[in-house]
Amino acid sequence: MSHIYVLDAGVLFSSWTIKVPEGTFATTSSVLDEVKNRPSKVRTEILTLLDRLQEDFATPESIKAVRLAADKTGDKSVLSEVDIEIVALAHTKKSLGMKTTLVSTDLAVLNTARHLGLTILDPSGRFKHEIVWSLKCPACYHKSSSKAKELECPVCGTIMRRVVHRKRKSR
Ligand SMILES: [Zn+2]
C-alpha cells in the first residue's frame, strides 16, 4: 500500500515535496484554494506535482475528533478552519486503515495531530514535544486552565497569556 502524506499549505509551498520520491500527496480543497491564489511561479511548481497530489475530504466525525483534541491541548484558539480540516483529513485516512503521515510546519497543527495519535513530520524540525497550554496572568502570575483565547485575570483584570502548561516527551 502506498504511503500517503497529508500536506498543509506551508509544506506545499516549500521544496519538501521534491525530496520525497515515493508515496502520494493529499490535501484539502481549502488548502488548494490558498495555493491557487498565490503568484504564478509557485503555482506552476505546484501544478507539476498535481499528478501526485489528490484533493480529498475529511469526514464530519474526524472534524469533530480534531475539535475535541484541540480543545484539550489548548490549540483551538489558534487553529483556523483550514488547519482543522487538514488534521481531520489525516485522521480520516488513518481511520480508513491507510498509512498516513501529516506533514506540517505549524506547531499547533502538529501538536493537535500528535494528541490524536497521528504520525507527524515537521520538515523544519522545530516540533519537539507535545504541549498542553494554559493561561497565566503577566501581572500577578495567577494561573488558569481555561482554554479561552482571551481571558481577563479573575484576580487583577489583566489579559492573560498562553503559556506551556505541560510537555510530553516525543514518541
Ligand atoms: Zn492577574
Structural summary, described in words:
With 171 residues, the protein is an alpha/beta fold. The protein folds into two domains: 4-121, 3-Layer(aba) Sandwich (Rossmann fold), CATH 3.40.50.1010; 130-168. It has six helices and eight strands. It has a five-stranded parallel β-sheet. Helix 1 links the parallel strand 1 and strand 2 (24-27). The radius of gyration is 18 Å and the shape is elongated. It starts with a strand and ends with a strand. The mean pLDDT is 89. It binds zinc ion.
- What CATH architecture label of the largest domain applies? 3-Layer(aba) Sandwich
Q: What is the CATH domain class of the largest domain?
A: Alpha Beta
Termini separation (Å)? 24 Å
What is the CA-based Rg, rounded?
18 Å
Total strands: 8
What is the subunit organization of this protein? Answer: single chain
Strand content: 15-25%
What bound compounds does this protein have?
zinc ion
Structural class determined from secondary elements: alpha/beta
Largest sheet: 5 strands, parallel
Overall pLDDT: 89
Q: Which strands sit side by side, in order, in the main sheet?
A: 3-2-1-4-5
The CATH homologous superfamily of the largest domain is named: 5'-nuclease
The succession of helices and strands, N to C, reads EHEHHEHHEHEEEE
The helical percent reads 25-40%
Number of helical segments? 6
Task: From the 3D structure, determine the CATH topology of the largest domain.
Answer: Rossmann fold
Based on Cα principal axes, name the global outline.
Answer: elongated
Are there runs of 5+ residues with pLDDT below 50, and where?
Answer: none
Q: Kindly give the count of domains.
A: 2
